[in-house]
């Protein structure tokens, strides 16, 4: 249902990869989503959509909500569930490299230490930006 919803609404996205990796689930469950802590994660700044978890995707009504949440983006974190990446081809999806920043975010989040921002040019008005405040200079 998830793949068909995206394919029907976004003809520009020919390939959809939806994974349930341990790290992906952990990051999708973090209140702040993907942490902007490295050059790898900064590549996704302002490019990630979020979708509230509604349970196992069987309700056809969720298709419209999922597509609306995706908007014009091609990367989504369905909350408490997974990672979703889409692109013009399977190769393009694989090249997005979403696993590296996700693994780093899980590693940093599991430690008992303070994080530092990725750099001074990425100041977003608060020490550790959340998806709602991602208005970073690029």
Descriptive account of the structure:
The protein has 138 residues and is of the alpha+beta class. Helices cover 34% and strands 13% of the residues. It is built from six helices and four strands. It has a four-stranded mixed beta sheet with strand order 1-4-3-2. A hairpin with a 4-residue loop joins strand 3 and strand 4 (83-87). Helix 1 crosses helix 4. The chain is globular. The protein starts with a helix and ends in a 28-residue tail after the last helix.
Number of helices: 6
Q: What's the helical proportion of residues?
A: 25-40%
Termini separation? 35 Å
Structural class: alpha+beta
Question: What about the largest sheet?
Answer: 4 strands, mixed
Query: Spans of 5+ residues with little confidence (pLDDT < 50)?
Result: 119-138
| Proportion in β-strands | 5-15%
The overall average pLDDT, rounded, is: 76
Shape: globular
CATH fold-level name = L-fuculose-1-phosphate Aldolase
How would you describe this structure in keywords?
disordered C terminus; 4-stranded mixed beta sheet; L-fuculose-1-phosphate Aldolase; 138 residues; alpha+beta
């Amino acid at each position: 249902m998830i793949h068909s919803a995206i394919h029907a609404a976004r003809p520009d996205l020919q390939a959809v990869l939806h994974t349930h990796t341990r790290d992906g689930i952990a990051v999708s469950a973090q209140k702040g989503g993907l942490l902007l802590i490295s050059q790898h994660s900064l590549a996704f700044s302002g490019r990630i959509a979020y979708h509230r978890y509604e349970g196992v995707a069987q309700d056809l009504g969720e298709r419209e909500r999922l597509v609306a949440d995706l908007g014009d983006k091609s990367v989504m974190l369905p909350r408490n569930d997974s990672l979703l990446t889409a692109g013009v081809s399977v190769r393009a999806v694989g090249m997005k490299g979403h696993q590296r920043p996700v693994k780093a975010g899980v590693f940093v989040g599991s430690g008992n230490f303070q994080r530092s921002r990725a750099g001074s040019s990425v100041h977003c008005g608060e020490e550790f930006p959340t998806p709602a405040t991602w208005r970073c200079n690029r």
